[in-house]
Amino acid sequence: MYDENNIFAKILRKEIPCNIVYEDDTSLFFYDINPLFKIHVLGIPKIACKDYSDFIEKSDSSLRSQFFENIKIVINKLDISKSGYRLVSNSGTDGGQEVPHFHVHILGGEKISAIK
Ligand code: 5GP
Questions:
Q1: Considering Cα of 98, then 99, then 102, then 105, what sign does the dihedral take?
Q2: CA 99 / ligand 1 centre spacing (Å)
Q3: Mean pLDDT, 10 residues at a time, over the chain (116 residues)?
Q4: Does the beta carbon of 88 lie inside 6 Å of ligand 1?
């Protein structure tokens, strides 16, 4: 069940402000309020979906492709295409997800250590 009161749902409804990097009809990209790296941007689709699996179930191929193409647009805007970056999406309890609206973390601007 999707929680309509999660913080990203409130951001999508413009009830809470955010620092936007890029937005179109399908998705919103904004800076993380508590950045873990020099560049830490979050990307969310504009449909009610709680995690990656839910996003795949509820989206059509057009929305899916637009969302992932938008990630590339944001990577270019952030100018981290050459230096490198990490894409992360946490899902559920074992994945360490805190906000139950599907999101992708775009991390970069510095060297990030390897996942063990
Ligand atoms: P998760 O652990 O769910 O993958 O990541 C949630 C992320 O959302 C965290 O990195 C956290 O700092 C960020 N976050 C939580 N609340 C807010 C908020 O109100 N505004 C913004 N911009 N980021 C938030």
A1: negative
A2: 7
A3: 97 98 98 98 98 98 98 98 98 98 98 91
A4: no
